[in-house]
């Protein structure tokens, strides 16, 4: 048996921090997420650095900001950098990845073959990007012919995860499981979970505005979409329970670090918006639960400003794996469990005006988040928003450039500038950024595919597109 701890890292897609019982939401049913929090630590103010799928997923796996791992927008591939799986594989771990990947460029239904493009993961039951939760032919193993499966996607993925745990029980193992929900389409949830919220009233957050500003917001029913979002989370909660039970049945609960988080949140009608790619809390705050018996005290809470760049160094320290942290932008959160306050500020960003930000005509932005304030600028260092989080926790009163906040704003401008310098971020329009990074050809190919001009297929690269497809949001 290895002296290293095992890792089960589970993340949802587009799940907000607020929508669990352990987060104080009494209207949603999440007994197993609550069980996980009760047995470990709940980071109550966890953030993602870039609230959109591909950039955030790259950060979760590398500990780097998107501008340093290269996947600066949806459907751009992860650059040439080490992942957590690369590090763990070198230490003898059996590594596995199940679910949505979204780090291999275009087309979205492409086959990612065994080898370097799987970024250190050996076992593979994944697809690049899809949110068709009852589709039967989406998984790729080691053949370009997709596997035929049936049932609700998170249930199938959890079955595969349980099988991986059984087959690798002698360890050490590191399994990353990426569930697609509660990312829209919101109604695509088994009916038994939708029924849980059929008649129950759901209290809207104070900043909810309907009708919304986006075309999607005008098409969807407000009450039903939130109820279905809750239903999807309850469905995931059931699957989390199955995973925790499996670890206990196999005698692995004491030796396995369990992590649960999300790649970003969902505005879900707050400020009249849906989805993500903006700096408000609904898009950037995510759940972050960790359990490691004997190391993490049960029922712990930390209000530290944890963020996605911190996940890799934190995981490696908990597992007892030494590494050179110089290639990462984050730092371990383990001191926070001993009372350390954690980071004083977090850098947030959207590097490319595309997808949701293009739909809402929001230019590229950067932001700094402290315990007390959220400050954001749009490209060109133009002040955009400043919220006093103590006085305005739902971020409804923008006080940017107001005289009473001049000194505070000046300090936040300085902090943001320092963070941008450390991240080597030139803060230029996205179309200029991709050219500077040598990603121009990939970006233009991505735009052609998104426009429907190019087709997809099961090929191994962006140029393998064969037949037209309609791309969805990431």
UniProtKB/TrEMBL annotation:
SUPFAM superfamilies given in the database record: Alkaline phosphatase-like
Organism lineage: Bacteria, Bacillati, Actinomycetota, Actinomycetes, Micrococcales
Keyword Oxidoreductase among record annotations: no
GO MF term set: arylsulfatase activity; metal ion binding
Pfam families named in the record: Sulfatase
Keyword Calcium assigned: yes
Species of provenance: Ruania alkalisoli
Record-stated family: Belongs to the sulfatase family.
UniProt-listed InterPro entries: Alkaline_phosphatase_core_sf, Sulfatase, Sulfatase_CS, Sulfatase_N
Domain Sulfatase N-terminal: 5-321
PROSITE patterns: SULFATASE_1 (PS00523), SULFATASE_2 (PS00149)
Superkingdom of origin organism: Bacteria
Alphabetical UniProt keywords: Calcium, Hydrolase, Metal-binding
Name recorded for this polypeptide: Sulfatase
């Amino acid at each position: 048996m290895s002296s290293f701890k095992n890792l089960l890292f589970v993340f949802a897609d587009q799940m907000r921090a607020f929508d669990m019982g352990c987060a104080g939401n009494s209207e949603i049913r999440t007994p197993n997420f609550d069980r996980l929090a009760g047995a470990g630590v709940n980071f109550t103010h966890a953030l993602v650095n870039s609230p959109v799928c591909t950039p955030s997923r790259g950060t979760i796996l590398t500990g780097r900001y998107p501008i340093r791992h290269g996947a600066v927008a949806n459907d751009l591939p992860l650059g040439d950098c080490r992942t957590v799986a690369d590090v763990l594989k070198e230490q003898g771990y059996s590594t596995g990845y199940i679910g949505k990947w979204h780090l291999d460029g275009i087309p979205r239904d492409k086959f990612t073959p065994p080898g370097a493009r799987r970024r250190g993961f050996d076992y593979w039951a994944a697809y690049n990007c899809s949110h068709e939760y009852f589709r039967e032919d989406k998984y790729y193993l080691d053949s370009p012919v997709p596997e035929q499966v049936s049932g609700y996607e998170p249930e199938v993925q959890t079955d595969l995860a349980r099988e991986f745990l059984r087959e690798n029980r002698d360890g050490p193992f590191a399994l990353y499981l990426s569930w697609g929900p509660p990312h829209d389409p919101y109604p695509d949830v088994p009916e038994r979970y939708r029924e849980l919220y059929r008649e129950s009233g759901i209290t809207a957050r104070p900043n909810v505005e309907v009708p919304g500003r986006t075309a999607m917001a005008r098409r969807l029913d407000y009450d039903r979409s939130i109820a279905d979002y809750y239903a999807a989370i309850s469905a995931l909660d059931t699957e989390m329970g199955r995973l925790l039970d499996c670890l206990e049945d196999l005698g692995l609960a004491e030796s396995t670090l369990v992590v649960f988080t999300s790649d970003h949140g969902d505005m879900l009608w707050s400020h009249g918006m849906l989805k993500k790619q903006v700096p408000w809390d609904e898009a950037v705050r995510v759940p972050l639960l960790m359990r490691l018996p004997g190391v993490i005290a049960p029922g712990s809470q930390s209000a530290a400003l944890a963020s996605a760049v911190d996940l890799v160094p934190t995981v490696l320290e908990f597992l007892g794996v030494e590494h050179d942290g110089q290639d990462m932008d984050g730092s371990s959160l383990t001191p926070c469990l001993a009372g350390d306050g954690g980071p004083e500020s977090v850098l947030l960003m959207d590097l490319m005006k595309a997808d949701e930000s293009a739909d809402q005509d929001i230019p590229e932005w950067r932001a700094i988040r402290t315990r007390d304030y959220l400050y954001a600028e749009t490209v060109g260092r133009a002040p955009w928003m400043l919220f006093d989080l103590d006085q305005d926790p739902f971020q409804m009163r923008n006080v940017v450039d107001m005289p009473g906040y001049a000194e505070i704003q000046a300090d936040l401008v300085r902090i943001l500038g320092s963070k941008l310098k450390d991240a080597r971020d030139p803060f230029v329009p996205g179309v200029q950024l991709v050219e500077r990074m040598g990603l121009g050809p990939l970006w233009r190919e991505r735009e052609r595919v998104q426009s429907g001009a190019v087709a997809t297929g099961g090929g191994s690269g962006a140029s393998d597109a064969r037949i037209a497809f309609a791309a969805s949001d990431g």
